[in-house]
Amino acid sequence: MDLTIVILAAGQGTRMRSDLPKVLQPLAGRPLLAHVLEYSRALAANDVCVVYGHGADAVPTAFAGQGLRWALQAKQNGTGHAVMQAMPDTPDDNQVLILFGDVPLLLPETLQRLRAATGDDELAILTVDMDDPTGYGRIVREHGKVVRNVEQKDASDAERQIREINTGVMLSPAVKLKHWLDKLGNDNAQGEYYLTDIIAMAVNDGVTVHGIKASKQEEVMGINDKKQLAEAERALQARLVDELMAQGVGFADPSRVDIRGNLSCGKDVFIDINAIFEGEVVLGDGTKIESNNLIRDTRLGTGTLVHSNCHIEGAVTGANCEIGPFARLRPGAELADNVKVGNFVEIKKSTVADGSKVNHLTYIGDTDIGKGVNVGAGTITCNYDGVNKHRTTIGDDVFIGSGVNLVAPVKIGKGATIGAGSTITKPVAEGQLVIERSKQMTVRGWKRPVKKGAD
Ligand code: UD1
Ligand code: CA
Questions:
Q1: Which atom of ligand 1 is nearest to the CA of 81?
Q2: Do the Cβ atoms of 11 and 79 come closer than 8 Å?
């Protein structure tokens, strides 16, 4: 049977106290809804419909071009009412899986298990045993069989003792779901159309109702406020780090690392505390990341060492590079093998060939540096004339003294040496020493000014 997935995401998320709709709140660097779409993918549904709320156009905008179907629920009249909004364009002969935009940690295996257990004409609900079930719908069973759900606000004292709760996730044949939704009323404590009322309707119609249990409470955790968002963040981070440790990645403290994207690691990688990885990051065999680093959309080659306190974005390194402490690699920084980038060095849109060193207090932008080059402390490539950017080219084996300005566009020939303090504006020939500075003079008998009295 073909599958339609309906994701309820119309809740306003008032408790977030944020201008951002709840399902766009970031978890591990991506909107909550992106996590739901990701675990949904395991079911290969051919139709995914998101029910979004009035005034939350930012949600369809954020997920444009992903082949999703959108249904507006203008007024929030309950979960049953929300599902109704998605029904008109849902094919009758599909199965419908109902998911929630604010439940980001479900495992795809759980959904696959739910689907595998459910026949084409049957209903399934995902439940879980809660230590503290307060606030949730309780699952009432008779002789082990699910007979209905009762909401907290409508439950008797005895029913409130039940620890098996409704997660909200449900799988139903579309045609039956439509039939039951048509019959829903809102005569209950909250005056809402409860999706959960269809459970008892199914039982009445003699339809088998499966109550499938999720393995952990964490999986079905719904996010309503910033505290729950932070709890979900830690739970997800723990999951990501566990996977990496199982692959052999070493962490000084698994609870002090954040992965907001995809981190893939080779063998014998070690990551010290407070490292943040964003976007697509690849760490080659034997790389070591010291404490307090932000690394985004970057690929580090075998054996590369990143010392503490670096900010690295959009960079690529070869093997055995050494970066930092306190270095900044910006997009387009491409280091070959055995390159050293030291403290307070910024590199942008530049290539640095094998074995070159840029060790102290330097800005390299729009530059190509050859092999075996030494760039002295305080060197600046002056790449910007106030309007346009220009490139600097530095040949192999060049030695650049300290405090040099290279005014681009400019070319330094192979093996040239630039004297400290020079401001280079013209091409430098291969193998030559070039010095550009005024002659040192001595002013004899000169006295320092003395402090005047107060006037
Ligand atoms: C619902 C279930 C309850 C279950 C709990 C799990 C019903 C009647 N109750 O209760 O059995 O234990 O979830 O968390 O279904 N939503 C809409 N439109 C609406 C109402 C809700 O899109 O009109 C969305 C919300 O954005 C939210 C989800 O549905 O993501 C759950 O809604 P909520 O009002 O929080 O349901 P609960 O009362 O918690
Ligand atoms: Ca809720």
A1: 23
A2: no
Residue 157 has pLDDT above 80, yes or no: yes
- The pLDDT value recorded for residue 454 is 72
pLDDT surpasses 80 at 246: yes
Q: Which ligand has the minimum distance to the alpha carbon of residue 151?
A: 1
Residue 165 pLDDT grade (very low, low, confident, very high; cuts 50, 70, 90): very high
Could you tell me the domains of the chain? 3-220 (3.90.550.10), 226-434 (2.160.10.10)
pLDDT at 453 over 90: no
How confident is the model over 195-244, as pLDDT tens digits? 999 999 999 999 999 999 999 999 999 999 999 999 999 999 999 999 99
Q: Which residues line ligand 1 (CB under 6 A)?
A: 8-11, 51, 73, 76-79, 81-82, 100-102, 136-137, 149, 151, 165-168, 194-196, 222
Nearest CA to ligand 1 atom 32: 79
User: What is the token pair recorded at 47?
Assistant: 């139709």
- Kindly report the protein residue whose alpha carbon is nearest to atom 21 of ligand 1: 79
Residues identified as active-site: 360
pLDDT at residue number 320: 98
Atom of ligand 1 lying closest to residue 22 CA = 26
| CA separation for the pair 87, 176 (Å, rounded) | 11
Q: What's the mean per-residue pLDDT of the chain?
A: 97
For every residue of 291-358, DSSP letters joined together read SSEEEEEEEE-TT-EE-SS-EEES-EE-TT-EE-SSEEE-TTEEE-TT-EEEEEEEEESEEE-TT-EE
**Coarse DSSP helix, strand, coil percentages of the chain, rounded to the nearest 5 percent:** 20, 35, 45
| Nearest protein Cα to ligand 1, atom 39 | 136
**Ligand 1 probe mutation, 50, 59, 79, most atoms within 8 A of CB:** 79
Q: Are 320 and 303 in contact (CB under 8 A)?
A: yes
Ligand 1 centroid to Cα of residue 14, in Å, is: 14
Lowest model confidence (mean pLDDT) among 24-28, 345-349, 437-441: 437-441
